[in-house]
Structure formats: C-alpha cells, structure tokens
C-alpha cells in the first residue's frame, strides 16, 4: 500500500485549558495495514471534564491473541460493534475543532487521519499536543517515558491501562502533573 502524505494539524507545545484527550486501541502498529478496534475521547473545558466518547469497532480481521492479551478486547466484544466508517465519523463529530491531546499522540492521529480520509474523504486537521514530549523534557531520570512509567512515578492509578478510555484518563492526569512541573521549572 502506498504511503499517505498527511495534511494533518500541527503538533503544538502548549498547555491548553480546553482540549480533547484521545486514545485508540488497534490490531497492530501500522496505520496502512492494521485496524482501529477502540476509540475514546474526553473533552475538557477550563480543565474540567465535560463530555466523553467511547466506542469499540468491529475489525475486518480477527483480533490476534497478543492484542487481546494487551488490551482485553476480544473478538466476541467487537462482533456487534459499529464498523470504522460509522465510528470514525462519530469521533470526528465529537472532537469538532478541539485541540487534541494524547500520549505519543502521533500514533493515534495517523490512524484516525488515515481512516477518516479513507472512509469519508475528510482530513483530520486538528492541532495536537503530545504529552510524551513533556515527559521527555521533564523526567529524564526515568528508565523510560512510557505512559504507565510516568503515571507510576506520579502515583497515578494505572489499573485498566491499554483500554482507550482508561488511557485517556491516565494521559490527562500525566498532562496535569507535567504541566505543573514545567510551570514550576520555568518560574525558577
């Protein structure tokens, strides 16, 4: 499959008060070859959670045991879920023009972008903030900057990680801690 030249929004280094945290679960790592099996998004206004979107998605291929073990999402769970064309449009309508936020969010954006373009001819052009970039800048002493490692460092509960809705919650908690730490550092 030929590579898509994406005309997506810009990656921003910003501390927005109004944003939409997004996370997806997929059948693998390649947006060109793998499928989205779950999308979650949480809207925040002035730092307060105001709306929530979550859907499983029925893939065209069976979910591999490795993915089920990682996410807890089974083939049985998705058998009656909407297909990607419906789910991706529902997500797009939910996100609107919001600044998107996520952890290693480029991964999620690329999957969302490619599926929205393929299914509806729409480019996902929302600007986005990658919380991983903040962790790389602030938490250089950690052995890695995986979301669960950063969450554990801050004492954030990670039970249920690798499900999209829980990962949105973890991401937002990490964002708030990292934002506050970066603001403290800039004051000193």
Instruction: Please mark out the parts with pLDDT under 50 across 5 or more consecutive residues, or reply none.
Output: none
Q: Please report the distance between the alpha carbons of the first and last residues.
A: 50 Å
Question: What spatial order of strands do you see in the largest sheet?
Answer: 1-6-5-2-3-4
Q: What is the H/E order?
A: EEEEHHHEHEHHH
| Strand proportion | 15-25%
What's the mean pLDDT score?
A: 95
Observed structural traits:
19% strand, 6 strands, alpha/beta, six-stranded mixed β-sheet, 7 helices, 188 residues
Folded structure, characterized:
The chain is of the alpha/beta class and 188 residues long. The chain has seven helices and six strands. It has a six-stranded mixed beta sheet with strand order 1-6-5-2-3-4, sandwiched between helices. Helix 3 crosses helix 4 (105-120) and helix 6 packs across helix 7. The longest helix has 24 residues, at 164-187. The N and C termini lie far apart (50 Å).
Give the SSE map.
Layout: E1 11-12, E2 19-26, E3 36-45, E4 48-56, H1 65-71, H2 75-78, H3 84-95, E5 100-102, H4 105-120, E6 128-130, H5 131-138, H6 147-154, H7 164-187
Parallel strand pairs: 1-6, 2-5, 5-6
Antiparallel strand pairs: 2-3, 3-4
Can you summarize this structure?
The chain is an alpha/beta fold. The chain is built from 7 helices and 6 strands; from the N terminus they run ββββαααβαβααα.
């Amino acid at each position: 499959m030929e590579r898509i030249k994406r005309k997506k929004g810009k990656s921003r280094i910003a501390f927005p008060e109004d944003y939409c945290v997004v996370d997806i679960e997929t059948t693998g790592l390649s947006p060109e070859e793998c499928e989205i099996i779950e999308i979650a998004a949480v809207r925040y206004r002035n730092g307060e959670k105001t709306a929530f979107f979550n859907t499983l998605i029925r893939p065209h291929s069976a979910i591999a045991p490795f993915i089920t073990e990682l996410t807890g999402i089974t083939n049985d769970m998705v058998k009656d879920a909407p297909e990607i064309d419906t789910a991706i449009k529902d997500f797009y309508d939910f996100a609107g023009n919001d600044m998107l936020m996520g952890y290693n969010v480029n991964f999620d954006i690329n999957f969302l972008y490619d599926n929205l373009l393929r299914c509806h001819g729409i480019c996902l052009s929302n600007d986005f903030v990658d919380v991983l970039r903040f962790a790389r800048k602030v938490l250089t002493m950690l052995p890695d900057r995986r979301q669960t490692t950063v969450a554990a460092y801050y004492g954030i509960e990670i039970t249920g990680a690798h499900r999209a809705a829980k990962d949105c919650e973890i991401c937002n908690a990490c964002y708030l801690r990292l934002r506050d730490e970066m603001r403290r550092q800039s004051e000193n």
